[in-house]
Design brief:
This protein is mainly alpha-helical and about 210 residues long. Helix content is about 75%, strand content about 0%.
């Protein structure tokens, strides 16, 4: 079975808002200094987690994302919690533990929706689809890919759009709908060519070629 594309774009474009601790009055000098220290810690931990994820050091990345998640939970930062949960899911998927990955994505989705960050919502839905695909639950996978598609389109992330279209094509190919699969692959290929991503383009071309076998 072909390996579905996982959305990593949320990691590469992660932009954290500062942690704001709720106080009933103007924060004192000591409180401001503490807040700045927390923000610095979050930024440093997140950068470490991102780097480890990008380098494929999944077990180390999991440890780092868990630290990020712990701080986010302490300060009730829903957006940051969603980022960390998706980061954890992504690394468990890379360790070929899609069921565990799915559990983290399921936790992340309502938080991502609550925070209003559609980038994270789209990435989470796509990655949930990939987990279901890896588990052989193809109808569930298709449902989540199709939910991800319009959101990714709204946030104008063409590379992720191509990946999700490709993933939808894979499901149709696996379930014997070859003509429909080719339509999605061709659309994905067109976008990959347009954005100038030769590696993505080649992977999609490989998937198209497999349809002829």
């Amino acid at each position: 079975m072909m390996k579905p594309f996982i959305s990593r774009l949320f990691i590469l474009t992660l932009c954290l808002t500062p942690v704001t601790l709720i106080t009933t009055s103007q924060p004192s000098w000591g409180e401001s200094e503490r807040n700045e220290s927390i923000e610095t810690t979050i930024q440093q931990l997140t950068e470490v987690a991102k780097t480890q994820t990008e380098q494929g050091r999944s077990q180390q990345a999991i440890d780092s994302w868990e630290q990020v998640l712990d701080i986010a939970q302490q300060h009730n930062k829903k957006n940051l919690q969603a980022f960390a949960l998706v980061g954890l899911g992504l690394n468990y998927h890379e360790l070929q533990q899609p069921a565990t990955a799915l559990e983290y994505y399921q936790q992340a989705l309502p938080m991502a929706k609550q925070s209003g960050d559609r980038r994270v919502v789209g990435a989470t839905l796509n990655n949930m689809g990939a987990s279901y695909q890896s588990l052989g639950q193809y109808q569930e996978a298709l449902t989540y890919y199709q939910r991800a598609l319009p959101i990714i389109q709204q946030v104008d992330k063409p590379t992720d759009m191509a990946k999700t279209l490709n993933n939808i094509g894979e499901i149709h190919g696996i379930t014997g709908k070859r003509a429909t699969a080719l339509q999605y692959y061709q659309e994905a290929l067109h976008i990959a060519q347009k954005v100038g991503d030769p590696l993505l383009e080649q992977e999609i071309r490989n998937n198209i070629a497999q349809m002829g076998n």
